[in-house]
Design brief:
The protein contains 15 helices and eleven strands. The protein has 483 residues and is α/β, with parallel strands linked by helices. The protein is globular.
């Protein structure tokens, strides 16, 4: 079976040209054939997937099927899934089988999707390369010596390689958009509060947001229609009328004004990435859009602000993993204090430990005002920058990352360099805005380049419309890595 979109598979299932069992069996075979090389999946749920496929086929035959019945997807292993391992890419949760589904998982399950398993990710979603997983690094399908991006690298790599047509991801500082960009797929981070965080294991609660990853903007819209929605179990979930993210896909781009932040096109942006982005912008102009220069003057403050706020929240959120109630517990210890220390030292990897230590430090007495409060003030300035820029344009466009995918291990000894790879994505999370990555051509080494589109609050439908129209006019999203 050739690589296909959710939309095309949905039509084939509805017309009974193919059954969900046949479809799921085919994708399970693809995972079996490729996962050893790419390492995109931590858990593959063969029995559960086939049982769900049979149930979907029965519902389709009876005329009671949900709108996404029988379509196979995978979930980032940060979403709790009832009866299936939820490891967060960590030794700390290596044996944790969730007793309930995350809101995202239950919503998609109600729509009829079939989950094939859980995708690899940076431990507790902390990283930009997917090298921080306790289950090993994920490889980029376009070049197995390169990183796929992180932290949702397993989801992006699985979709890019054709192991699955779509997957869920989470985005705390670019963790959907950056791997989507480096792997040549489409991924969207919605407005903060649009998708419930219930059952999504927390990294930084004021920044985390779930979203879909797929080959096309149309497929992302299909999934987001069911992922989004109010959930009373999440105190940050927004109670508002549901949007139809597919409604504006066919809207022409005539009159669209695109803002180009001068800070996103300056020093540090690789020449081949710049060329690809400019080619994509030229295509958008052909479709009727115009571009205008805007400024986001506090962009350079986004990384220092983020790496105070996110670790501070992580140190608080991850304090629950203490070896007492669930998760890894050290086998030998003299007293309770040693049990805590050894369990956490053994269970958490180096990057997670680094961020917990930083977070604990900035929240400690004497440093809270100097660091954490200052970072929150910078966050407000960054949000104001976006507000000002978006008053001059409809959406903002620029690169997702400064370079195409880099080599595995290239930044292993320099975490700050890894953090700088998120320079164009982090500010969006600090402001809570929606943004997506869509394929925009290739680098000099034939590696994918992503175009980032940033919208105003609740502007997801417009972003998906722009990406969809670009995809109708180009074939970058249709190109696949060589098997």
């Amino acid at each position: 079976m050739s690589l296909q979109t959710l939309k095309s598979l949905q039509a084939q299932l509805a017309s009974k040209k193919i059954s969900s069992r046949e479809l799921v069996t085919d994708y399970l075979a693809r995972i079996e054939a490729q996962n050893a090389a790419i390492n995109a999946f931590i858990t593959v749920d063969h029995a559960g997937a086939l049982a769900a496929a049979d149930a979907a086929d029965a519902a389709i035959a009876a005329g009671t099927a949900g709108p996404l019945a029988g379509l196979p997807i995978a979930h980032k292993d940060i979403f709790c899934t009832e009866g299936v391992l939820t490891t967060c890419g960590s030794k700390m949760l290596a044996n944790f089988v969730s007793p309930y589904d995350a809101h995202v998982v239950s919503q998609l399950k109600a729509a009829g999707v079939v989950s094939l398993g859980k995708t690899n990710c940076d431990e507790f979603a902390m990283g930009s390369t997917n090298e921080n997983s306790a289950y090993g690094a994920v490889k980029n399908p376009w070049n197995l010596t390169r990183v796929p991006g992180g932290s949702s690298g397993g989801s992006a790599a699985a979709v890019a390689a054709g192991m699955i047509p779509a997957a869920t991801g989470t985005d705390t500082g670019g963790s959907i958009r950056q791997p989507a960009g480096l792997c040549g797929v489409t991924g969207i981070k919605p407005t903060y509060g649009t998708v419930s965080r219930y059952g999504m294991v927390a990294y930084a609660s004021s920044l985390d947001q779930g979203g879909p990853m797929a080959h096309t903007a149309e497929d992302c819209a299909l999934l987001l229609n069911h992922m989004a929605g109010f959930d009373s179990r999440d105190s940050t979930s927004l109670e508002r009328a549901k949007d139809d993210y597919s409604a504006e896909l066919n809207q022409p781009l005539a009159g669209l004004k695109i803002g180009l932040p001068q800070e996103y096109f300056g020093e540090g942006l690789a020449a081949d990435v710049r060329a690809a982005i400019e080619n994509a912008l030229a295509e958008l102009r052909k479709l009727g859009a115009s571009t205008v220069e805007v400024s986001l003057p506090n962009t350079h403050l986004a990384i220092p602000a983020y790496y105070v706020i996110a670790p501070a929240e992580a140190s608080s959120n991850l304090s629950r993993f203490d070896g007492v109630r669930y998760g890894h517990r050290a086998s030998e210890y003299k007293d309770l204090a040693e049990m805590y220390a050894k369990s956490r030292s053994e269970g958490f990897g180096k990057e997670v430990q680094r961020r917990i230590l930083v977070g604990t430090y900035v929240l400690s007495h004497g440093y809270y005002d100097a660091y954490y409060i200052k970072a929150q003030q910078l966050r407000r300035l960054i949000a104001e920058d976006f507000k000002q820029a978006l008053s001059q344009c409809d959406i903002i466009a620029g690169p997702v990352a400064p370079t195409a995918a880099w080599g595995i291990g290239q930044m292993a000894d320099d975490p700050v360099q890894m953090y700088l790879a998120d320079i164009y994505t982090i500010a969006v999370n600090l402001a809570g805005l929606p943004a997506l990555s869509t394929p925009a051509g290739f680098s000099a080494e034939k590696l994918p380049v992503g175009l980032q589109l940033i919208g105003n609050y609740f502007g997801e439908a417009r972003l998906l419309n722009v990406a969809y129209q670009l995809q109708q006019a180009t074939d970058w999203h249709l190109q696949r890595p060589q098997a």
